[in-house]
Amino acid sequence: MLFFFLWYEAYSAASQQFKSVLLTITPFMEDAGIDEAFLDISELLDASESIVVRIKTRIKEKTGLTCSIGIAPNKLLAKIASDMQKPDGLTTLNEGDVECQLWPLPIRKLYGVGPKTEAHLKDIGIETIGQLAASSAEKLIETFGHSYGHYLYDASRGIDDSPLVTHWEPKSISRETTFQEDVKNWQVIARTLAELTKEVVADMQEHGYQTRTVTIKIRFSDFQTLTRAKTISDYTDAEEEIRKAAFACLKRIDLNKRVRLIGVRASNLEKVTS
DNA sequence: TCTGGGGTCCTAGGACCC
DNA sequence: TCTGGGGTCCTAGGACCC
Question: Per-residue confidence at A156, pLDDT binned at 50, 70, 90?
Fold first, then answer.
């Protein structure tokens, strides 16, 4: 059985406290952002509701803040449940509740459905999770592709086999910035790219990663967004080499419009073993 | 929402190799 | 010499999340 915590107005200091309280309950915790976490308490003997009361009390003591909790057999349902009673709530959602609790909800409440998918679904007459569940897998896969179509089919039924992830390595490290005013001056763009690259490299070095793929992102004043990537032959954390790759990417973009945002990302990461 | 920043995953197409 | 299929890597862009 898994929990999800949603916790309002969290600050990083409080976030630490929050996570440490959870870890006193079980090591099976998945960090899901500054103010959210999943807890797998299926191995614990206590009745889940009594554990929840204990956790709420301790979090209140340590941080002075309240949290909303969802209890469910999987992460998807736990997250949706936590959102059902907003401040300081506690909601249990079981497989048997899917039809009466999940299906009446608007599709946007389903994790993974954003504004684009919402609009697309409404175009084909689907407004609730129940209506989504009434669609065939074939239709959804045809419309949304194999992976996402499958996901929607399962998720609309409350099915989620995703495991709890207690530890993971970053896939990429990036920095981006939006200019106060859209810029045309190449010098300013270049200087900013160099600064962002420096920050990315510092971050990589601090956490012991090397990269092979450098991607830059440019957003113009009309919101057109371009990316250019360069993969180099060997993993590196050398600033000069990474900056060269970033500038090689920049050269491939025609800067004929004012630039609103510039960013740089290092991916294809490898942990340095020392 | 006239739109901030740091992430993840997916898809499609092209290049290249066997 | 020509053709084709499959696998892998890389690139670019899109959608979503907190």
Answer: very high
Q: What is the DSSP letter of A28?
A: -
Which bases of strand C sit closer than 7 A to a protein CB? 9-18
Pairing label, strands A36-40, A29-31? antiparallel
Q: Which of residues 52-111 of A touch strand C (CB under 7 A)?
A: 79, 111
pLDDT in tens, A78-124: 999 988 887 788 889 999 999 999 999 999 999 999 999 999 999 99
Active-site choice (A36, A95, A99, A176) = A36
Query: Residue A114 CB closer than 7 angstroms to strand C?
Result: yes
Phi and psi at A5, nearest 5°, equal -115, 130
The one-letter amino acid at A182: D
